[in-house]
Amino acid sequence: MALLPNHPEVLKKAQTEIDVAVGTSRLISPDDLPRLGYLQCIINETLRLYPAAPLLMPHESSAHCMVGGYDVLRGTMVLVNAYAIHRDPDVWEHPAEFKPERFEGGDADADGRRLLIPFVMGRRKCPGEALALRTVGMVLGTLVQCFDWDRVDGVEVDMADRGGLTIARAVPLEAMCKPRESMRDVLREP
Ligand code: HEM
Questions:
Q1: Using an 8 Å Cβ cutoff, are 154 and 16 in contact?
Q2: Distance in Å, CA 49 to ligand 1 centroid
Q3: 18: helix, strand or coil
Q4: Which of 52, 98, 133, 154 is most open to solvent, judged by the fewest CB atoms within 10 Å of its CB?
Q5: Model's pTM, two decimal places?
């Protein structure tokens, strides 16, 4: 939501996708989400730039192993810097840019490597991923479908974060919203 007022062309594209796939006579439903690929790209791109847990969770190696050419002894605490991986210029083109289109072909590269890890990978990955993506998709999709969003007094939304184990905004989000003309009848329904 914070990124959209700074990128009106992304907001417009997401609204058009919903208008075509769902129409303007009803609100989106969870069954619509698989057909809203661009909305999913926005969520992926947001989680790439701002992973909820930038260092994921500390893990401990249960056996001696090699990771990327490094010896990791049994019992070592391993921290994975997802924030840095998500902004690695060797992996991502123009890594600092908000560009949902980069995920239009999926979230793996040509060799099938998954490069986006906000929910981690492997046996200890987040078990809530599907629920989280469904919930975020429904909330963001409904706000995008029903309202036009704009900056306050034209001032760019400040995307600074305030650090910590989980990522949080340094400045609370303020944005202008206006019901979309095409959704007025749906919004008036009791
Ligand atoms: C956008 C939303 C969410 C994000 C980005 C997220 C991300 C994560 C991350 C990074 C971990 C640590 C994995 C690791 O390094 O071991 C984790 C673990 C976990 N998450 Fe989520 N999560 C989200 C939503 C949820 C939801 C909705 C639930 C449950 C309803 C959930 C339940 C859990 C549990 C139980 C673990 C611990 C798994 C384990 O240690 O085996 N998460 N999540």
A1: no
A2: 18
A3: helix
A4: 154
A5: 0.94
Exposure on the CB side of residue 89, measured as CA atoms within 13 A: 2
Nearest CA to ligand 1 atom 1: 132
Per-residue pLDDT at 111: 65
Cα(20) to ligand 1 centroid in Å equals: 33
Residue positions in the annotated binding site?
126
Q: Which two tokens stand for residue 5?
A: 């007022």
Residues with CB under 6 A from ligand 1: 52-53, 56-57, 118-120, 124, 126-128, 131-132
Structure tokens of 153?
A: 């007094």
pLDDT tens per residue, range 150-163? 999 999 999 999 98
Q: What is the pLDDT of residue 112?
A: 63
The ranges assigned to domains in the chain are: 4-52+91-188
131 CA → ligand 1 middle, Å: 10
Chain segment 6-30, per-residue pLDDT in tens: 999 999 999 999 999 999 999 999 9
Name the CATH superfamily for 4-52+91-188. Answer: Cytochrome P450 (1.10.630.10)
